[in-house]
């Protein structure tokens, strides 16, 4: 009886294994990759928390946004971001600052609830714009750097447009990754410049 049950279990397990699709058939998930940064020679005695980015509901999703009209947003039919767009953008900002190696600690507000400074961001556009020719990946966001006691050290707007080299989801995600990585690097440099003259 025990042997029979074991045989049935093995057959069932074999069936489950066969149900796993090949990698090429799994729906793709895309993320954002920070640029390689030159390590800073300056070491600042501060910790920095990266607040979760804000965005309107149309962008606060894992779907990859495409602008098809002046006030119309649709989404790519295949593939998604690995998390909500504001979340992966916040992680990108964190890694862009961390890559410089200039601070004592960089993380989100959960890990650093009492950080010396906080970097807030507000995503205004994070999409492929098909109302232009050729299609462009557009990333626009504002950042605000505050001390722990609420003093504002600076506010800055960042914007870039990158051509999309095709119509596929992978090509749109790649262009948005290039645009976001470039701007997050700029934002990291801006924040560190402000912090170099700051007092917590």
UniProtKB/TrEMBL annotation:
Return the SUPFAM superfamilies for the record.
XCC0632-like
Look up keyword Translocase and say if it applies: no
ABC-type transport auxiliary lipoprotein component domain segment(s): 30-187
The record's InterPro entries line, in alphabetical order, gives:
ABC_trans_aux
Question: Does the keyword field hold Signal?
Answer: yes
- Signal peptide range in chain numbering: 1-23
Task: Tell me which PROSITE patterns the record gives.
Answer: PROKAR_LIPOPROTEIN
Question: Which UniProt keywords are given for this protein, alphabetically ordered?
Answer: Signal
Name of the protein described by the UniProt record: ABC-type transport auxiliary lipoprotein component domain-containing protein
